[in-house]
Specification:
Two copies of one chain form a homodimer. Chain A is an alpha+beta fold. Chain A has ten helices and four strands, in the order βαβαββαααααααα. In chain A, a hairpin with a 2-residue loop joins strand 3 and strand 4.
């Protein structure tokens, strides 16, 4: 039964799904749906996901969207996925669900709004919005502080003190990675105070190489392009 | 192994957990943590949930927060919970996860911000915020439209066309119920256009009686109190 993943490598939840599949030898067809050019609003894609967002999957005739639901499903539906990604043990699983649910209105909401209000506004056809950026950075910094002081408590290098990564590590680290498109001084200001977060990101990259770097290639290209534009803008000013 | 549920009957996700337990004969100790008086910020409660939010549970020595994670856990950890609440079938379960994940940044974000910006602002020690209210109502109305036209597609009366309610129905209907504290004309404007949503709410109430009405009793008391204050304010003006 074939698996199609509709996504885009500039979408952080789509990247998490791609990396998960590659890490676990799950074969899939990668179908790029460009949200910058509003391909997510096309009638064809709305048949897959009426919410007009990536990622979405089609597995045989089964359609599914929302990246956390997809990651949970793939971890259970494909044989041979190591237990640490989404443990069968009810209490271990519930803790990972708790991180994933917390993520939406905290880290995700902060990081996504900040990046869209600042760096990606022109690409999305919007004006940069400084007021939204201020509120979003506040939520983002509070969320990073919670990761630093609570979710990364414990002896292991991963969330919840685990010794191996789960789908929550993948989802949250991919989310933070989008900050790469900001100016380097902004990244330093936001991530600088959070040493454990930085180490955890490195550990997650290491645990998922070479797929992590490969899937993030497009993000690094966009980062370089935006950095060039900022330099040009500064020189012109 | 005893179950303690830390919550408050004015918290919509806490109400969903209470109703779920009562519907499924899960015995629990209800421990009220009043977020209006900032009891969620007490050191004792932060030992349970450092995010300072209700609901949270303690099951034996196992602590858990985030209502969707709690509902998933309870549905699996307690024997005898009927399958329709959170099906064992992977694809049926994934669809329910998809609704639950979608909920956070859509219906929940819209409804919660609207109610806090308008009706509950004084109780929370804040000024009403008309700009937030406008943005929140827009997101709320779009979310209700998605429920009406997409999530309630299908032959059964519940989300995803199911013939019996799931934890997603309980979570989403409890969320919408908080609109009761708004002025009746605002409720009519927001819910009026969504006939299928209204019918689904009635069906969910019927499927979970008498617990639904009992657990919402405090909300109806607050509604009456706020309505009285509005009338007094109008008369004084």
């Amino acid at each position: 039964m074939g698996l199609k993943v509709y996504g885009h490598r500039m979408s952080q939840p789509a990247r998490a799904v791609y990396i998960f599949c590659k890490m676990n030898g799950i074969e899939f067809e990668e179908i790029s749906v460009n949200f910058f050019t509003k391909k997510t609003a096309s009638p064809v894609f709305q048949e897959i996901n009426p919410m007009k967002q990536v990622p979405a999957i089609v597995h045989g005739t089964f359609k599914l969207f929302e990246s956390h639901a997809i990651l949970r499903y793939l971890a259970c539906a494909f044989p041979g996925v190591p237990d640490h990604w989404y443990p069968a043990d009810l209490q271990k699983r519930a803790k990972i669900d708790s991180v994933l649910d917390w993520h939406h209105l905290n880290l995700r909401h902060g990081a996504l709004r900040l990046v869209q209000a600042v760096a990606l506004a022109p690409k999305l056809g919007r004006q940069p919005n400084p007021q939204v950026a201020i509120e979003a950075e506040k939520l983002l910094s509070e969320s990073l502080e919670k990761i630093e002081t609570f979710w990364l408590q414990g002896s292991g290098p991963f969330l919840l003190g685990n010794s191996e990564p789960s789908i929550a590590d993948l989802s949250l680290v991919c989310e933070i990675m989008q900050l790469e498109v900001l100016d380097d001084k902004d990244i330093d200001r936001i991530l600088g105070p959070h040493k454990k977060v930085q180490q955890w990101m490195e550990d997650t990259k290491t645990a998922t190489k070479p797929h992590f770097e490969e899937i993030h290639g497009v993000l690094f290209e966009v980062k370089a392009e935006l950095q060039k534009q900022r330099l040009l803008g500064a020189n012109n000013a």
